[in-house]
Amino acid sequence: MKIHLLLLCCSMACHCIGQQSFPSNTDESKVQSYTLPDVLKMPNGKQVSSGKEWEKIQRPYIYHLYEEYQFGRFPATETAIRFRVLEVNQNAFDGVATRKQVRIYLHPTDTTVYTDVLMYIPNKIKTPPVFLGLNFSGNHIIATDKNIILSNKWVFARAKGAINNRATEASRGTDTASWQVRTILEKGFALATAYYGDFEPDTVTGYKTGIRTTMKDVLNIQPNEWTAMGAWAWGLHKIVDYLEKDKSIDAHKIALLGHSRLGKAALWAAASDQRIALIISNESGEGGAAISRRWYGETVQIINAKFPHWFAASYKRYGDSVNALPVDGHMLLSLMAPRPLYVASAEEDTWSDPKGEFLSAYEAGKVYALLGKKGIGANVMPGLHQPVGKTVRYHIRSGKHAVTAYDWTQYLEFAARWFKF
Ligand code: GTR
Question: Which residues line ligand 1 (CB under 6 A)?
Fold first, then answer.
């Protein structure tokens, strides 16, 4: 019976969450017309006419809309990190790199509240630029290196090698494809990564054991005043705090990469922290780079039903009236300007709406142009494997929802160009 219902539901282009089913679409001819909020229209109705007006009036206004309607606010209280270098080994990757594992204590007194940052730093380069990115189930997944500390935090039951929601030795190196560490090092970049679950486990009740609860008194904010996305973005800010103190890399050259839900978190982290010099949205989709007003792939209604902890309560009001949402993907991308921004999609990743991601990147180009930078240029989607654009760059590749070697090749080239490296 259950299977029958599911089949019926899917043939009707519906997405089922528990007992509920929500309409979803992957037929371009069914996408209705929509009007995007004008990213350059100021609250007084006038158009932004200078970079100064953007910085002083419009950017703070749009940023505030995001706090209010999607991501929630950050704690107003600043905390200083403490850290301990747990390990340094100059012989990683056959001597190509130094491996460094650093424990960042997030709480001023409770030493159980921490994140472990894993770094690989190329030995041949003095203070290299660094790629930063959160990973999905512990640092040990990114390489087969046996010396990486195995995370003992909660992980999804579906995480490879996991038993009872904990990583095991079998979990090591299970996501090397997404990280391409050797190539990153060979191109002269360092890599820094941490597990997003160190800040908040990605479940509806994850906030109870994450920093939104463990640090609520220190940060002076209640868990429901912000969001899981906010907690992950805050975690990235703390890692940047650490990177600024680490003399072995160039903290003026931090490239932040986020895939999928971590792409959404990365965009929010970069919107709220100018120390992040370059941003890569890898298939961040709904609530990230994609245009929510396009009825294609995942919708605001679906994302809120499936992941109620990700976004602010006010975001849920727009599930069936997305055209009234005060923000849309192009506005989030505009908050990256004038910093180099790479948006990427995959052909088979219809859930993330590749066309919506492209259009959003194209639209954000208006803000980049205002600030004297070049966006994507033409609003015609490029073919597969044909990256376009300068300060805002975009590609769509063949294949599924993932970070691949092809993607890394483009990102490394893009970052090398911008960091003059
Ligand atoms: C999906 C979710 C997407 C995307 C993805 C991921 O289930 O609907 O918004 O974030 O997960 O993170 O892999």
Answer: 260-261, 285-286, 298, 303
